[in-house]
Amino acid sequence: MTDDRLRHRTHEWLPPEPDLERLKTLPGLDYLRELYLGDPRRVPIGQLMGFRPVRFDAGLALFEGFPDEFHYNPIGSVHGGFAATMLDSAMGCAVHTVCKVGQGYTTVEIKVNYIRPMTRATGRVSVEGRVVAAGNRIATADGKVTDEGGRLIAHGSTTCLIFPL
Amino acid sequence: MTDDRLRHRTHEWLPPEPDLERLKTLPGLDYLRELYLGDPRRVPIGQLMGFRPVRFDAGLALFEGFPDEFHYNPIGSVHGGFAATMLDSAMGCAVHTVCKVGQGYTTVEIKVNYIRPMTRATGRVSVEGRVVAAGNRIATADGKVTDEGGRLIAHGSTTCLIFPL
Amino acid sequence: MTDDRLRHRTHEWLPPEPDLERLKTLPGLDYLRELYLGDPRRVPIGQLMGFRPVRFDAGLALFEGFPDEFHYNPIGSVHGGFAATMLDSAMGCAVHTVCKVGQGYTTVEIKVNYIRPMTRATGRVSVEGRVVAAGNRIATADGKVTDEGGRLIAHGSTTCLIFPL
Amino acid sequence: MTDDRLRHRTHEWLPPEPDLERLKTLPGLDYLRELYLGDPRRVPIGQLMGFRPVRFDAGLALFEGFPDEFHYNPIGSVHGGFAATMLDSAMGCAVHTVCKVGQGYTTVEIKVNYIRPMTRATGRVSVEGRVVAAGNRIATADGKVTDEGGRLIAHGSTTCLIFPL
C-alpha cells in the first residue's frame, strides 16, 4: 500500500567495537570522555534515538536529546521509552565515571517516573545522571530529564553492579 | 569523514493521528486491536525500535522485538532502553486492555530489572505485559522479556493512572 | 520455655482518631504540624517502631529514628523494614505538606535502596523526605536516611495519588 | 499527661545470635527452616511487627501477619511500613532459599505498590515471596500480600546481591 503521508528517516552508525584493552586500563571517566565524546556514530543507540552525550565529570553525566515524531506512540505523544533510554544512559554513565581502573559496571535495574509528556514541540531536552552512592559492589544514581525552561519531564534512579574487569 | 564501515538503516512511519472519537467510544481492548494490530506504520516508536504487537486480550498484551546492531551501546551489547521501551509498551497496553469505555490511562512509573544481556545473536524476543491490579484510579501491571528458549532477559512493573476521557 | 536471655519492651499509643473535619479545612502543612508535632502517642506506628517527626516545611519532612535490637533480623542487623517505614513516612508527609485545602493523598508505591546496614551501634538516624514533583493528581518525592556522621544508609522515592477530600 | 485512652503492648524477643558457622555450612533453605521455623522469638522484627514465617520451599517463602491498631498511621489505617517490612522479609527469604552452601545475600532494593488499605478489620494476611531470577551475583524476587479472601493488598519486587560467605 502506498500512502502519501508516509515518512521516513535514515540513521547511521559505526559497528560498536569496544576497545577492551583501553576499557581495562583507563579510569571510567577517561574512557567515557575518549569514547563517547569522540565520534557519536560509535554509539548506535544514540544515533537511533536522537540523543548524545554533552559532558562527563566525576559522578555526573549530561546528555541532550531531541524528541521527534518518530518517537511517538499512537496516542499522540513521545513514547516513554525515549526518556527511559536516555535516563538509563545518563545514570549508567554517571556510575561509569566513578569506576576505577579495572572496574566495570552493569545496570541491574532502573526506575522512571513520568511527570510531563514530551511532544515535538518540547524541543531539546537535557538529561542528567548523578551518582548517589558508590561502593565496591553496588552503586546507585538518580537522573532527571528537563526541557529548556527547566521544567521536569521525568526522573529516575538506577542500581548498578560493580565488578572487576 | 567517510568510513567504509559506516552502516545505515531507514525506518518509515505514518504520522500518528489518534482517532480521539473512537478512543472515547470503544473499550480499551477494542481500540488497541483496531489501532495497533492494523497498520504497524501507525506506531512510530515500534517502527523506530523494531518491535510490534502480537496479541491483546483482557489484561494481557504481547509484543515481539528484534534486537539488532543499531540498538547497541558502545560496550558491545543491546542498550537497556530497548527492553525498557518494549516493557513500557507491553505493560501500558495491558492496562489499556482493561480500560472501559470513557477511561484513559497514562503511565506514571516503570521499573525494569535486567537479567541477561541481549545481542544480535539473541534473535526474536517476546514481551509480555499482564495486569496485576486494576482500580478506578490506579492500575498496575508487570512484564517480562524472554528469548525463544524461554530464558528471562528482563522483567519489570508499572503503575498507571486511570482517568475519565 | 523460660529463657534468661529473653528481653521485652512496652510501647504505648493513643487510639488514632483522625479529625476529618480539620483534615478537610486545613492545608496539609498546617494539619501535619498540628497533628504530628503534638502528642507523638497519636502516631502508633512511630511509637511501635521508634521514630518521630522533627520538622515540616513546604515540600520537606524530617524525622529521626533510633535503631535498636528489637528491629533486628535474625542475621544480626536492623531489618530493612525499619528504613522503609521511616522513608514511607517522610516521603509521604513531604507530599502532604504541599497538599492544599481539600486535597488528600495516598501512597501508590515506594522504592528503597539499601546502602549501609544499621545496627544498635549506628545511633540516631535522620530521615528526610523531599517533594520532587507535585501535580494535581500525582506527586513524587524522594528521601534519604543518614547517620549522625552524614553517611548515607538508605535512599528511596515514592509516588502518591492526590485526590479531592 | 495521663489519658484514659492510652493503650500499650509488650513484645518480647531473644537477642539475635546468628550461628555463622551453620550459616556457612548449610544451604539457605535448610538454614531458614532451622532458624526461622524454630523459636520465633529469635526474630526480633517479627515479634515487634506481628508477623511470622509459615513455610519455606526452594524459591518460595510464606509469612503471615496480623494488622493491628499499633500499626496505624494517624490518618486511620495501617501504615505502609507494615506491608513493606513483611514483603522485604518474604522476598529476601525467597532469595535465601536458593542460596547454595557458602552463599550469602543482602537486599539491595525493594519496591512496593499499595493496592488496598489494611485496617484492624482486615484480619490475618498472607505474604508470599517468589524468586524470579537467580544468578551468581544478583537475584530478584517478587511478592504479594493478600487477605483471607484472596484480595490483593500490596505487591512488590526486590533485587538482592549474592556473595560468597
Outline of this structure?
The structure is a homotetramer of 165-residue chains. Chain A is α+β, with helices and mostly antiparallel strands. Helices cover 24% and strands 39% of the residues of chain A.
Task: Explain what this protein looks like in three dimensions.
Four copies of one chain form a homotetramer. Chain A is of the alpha+beta class and 165 residues long. Chain A has a single domain (21-164), classed as Thiol Ester Dehydrase, Chain A. The first copy, chain A, has helices spanning 20-25, 28-36, 44-49, 80-97, and strands spanning 7-13, 51-57, 60-65, 103-114, 125-134, 138-147, 152-164. In chain A, strands 2-3-5-6-7-4 form a six-stranded antiparallel beta sheet. Chains in contact: A-B, A-C, A-D, B-C, B-D, C-D. Chains A and B meet through strand 1, helix 3, helix 4 and strand 4 of A and strand 1, helix 3, helix 4 and strand 4 of B. Strand 4 (103-114) of chain C pairs antiparallel with strand 4 (103-114) of chain D, so a sheet runs across the interface.
